[in-house]
Design a protein that fits this description.
The chain has about 375 residues and is an alpha+beta fold. The protein has one domain: Cytochrome p450 (Orthogonal Bundle), CATH 1.10.630. The protein has helices spanning about 10-15, 20-30, 45-50, 65-70, 80-90, 90-95, 95-120, 125-145, 150-165, 170-190, 205-210, 215-230, 230-245, 250-255, 260-270, 300-305, 340-355, and strands spanning about 30-35, 40, 60, 125, 275-280, 285, 290, 295-300, 360, 370, 375-380, 380-385. Strands 1-2-8-5-3 form a five-stranded mixed beta sheet. It has a three-stranded antiparallel beta sheet with strand order 4-12-9. Strands 6-7 form a two-stranded antiparallel sheet. A hairpin with a 5-residue loop joins strand 10 (about 370) and strand 11 (about 375-380). Helix 7 packs antiparallel against helix 8, helix 8 runs antiparallel to helix 12 and helix 9 (about 150-165) crosses helix 12. The longest helix is centred in the first third of the chain and has 23 residues, at about 95-120. The termini are far apart.
Length: about 375
Amino acid sequence: MENRPTYNIDISKFKRNPYPDLQEMRAVNPICFVPQLNATMICDRASIYECEKNIEVFSSVQPRGLMTVLMGQNMMRKDGKEHLSERKTIFKTISPKTSRDHWKDKFETIADNIIDKIKELKSGDLLTLYARELSAECLKLVTGLTNMTAYEMDRVSQGMIDGCSNYTGDSDIEEYCNDCTESIDAHINEIVGKVDRNADFSLISTMLTGNLSADQISANIKLAISGGQNEPRDAIAGCIWAALNFELKELLLEKKNWDQLFNEYCRWMSPIGMSPREIAKDFSYKNFSFKKGDRVFLMFSSANRDEKVFANPDKFDLERDCSKSIHFGAGPHYCAGASIATTMISLVALPKLFMALPKLRLVEKEKYEFDGWAFRGIKSLECAW
């Protein structure tokens, strides 16, 4: 007998704060169909960890999926040998060694330059003044799109993120996303002939050297921009807010445990709230009946607050063991840019800012708002220093 429990959400409320609904889903039906999104949500960590590795059923190949339709079939929307081949091709750019030995110094120079500019302002929105600028300038180097402005990098990233999470079918969001992808292709076409294939660690360089096709390069650059700007930007801003809101600044400056701040924030607020899959064949899992073609959301944000894994999961705890957090995913699709993101945020963005601005503080604790469920971040970060 078919078993498909249903859970209804108010999309606007879910966007403002998904955690109460996710908590109820975990308690009642951790796997349930949500009609408003025409998708099944998997909400408990154990199931997500297991299902993400079962690519024969929970497939990343989604020809009708929003990301594929809007951005092309990148390696994130491939499984098996195809996915692994493209991932190996770009490893020179994203490896832990490259992140440490090549990118870190460049990221530090970018951070120093931005901090020098904002020091004299005494106050402002650090989401735009620091997090957005730093993430974008770093991503220009990593992708190789040094001909794109930081503003445009942020614009096209947000446009694609909005397009990929447009599960209500808003035509204006789709049109804007198409404008963003066209801008990226124009920037790729402008610079591709100028790239030094031998001396450059950028994604464009490594993909050209690896003989990836123009379509593969385009799709994977868009993937890197969609995830490589929006999510680090929101994580940097969110970590700054958390350190100040929970009065952790002095402790962090003493212990220098910036990596723990980053990991706990990503567990607690999950900038990447979910990852979509398509069911490749009829399948029954924990008494839930999946049908071929079903849309499934692996809810990382819910897994990271699973009461069976994390004690008092709604509390922000700098001393927490975050080893079971899956903010970077799990299995073969574990985030390819994890090392670069960790280097940028934990080793550069956070220590640089807090050491340079010892009087950094929030303007009003109560005024800060977060938004989003598929991707989640703080809406503004007004601070004084």
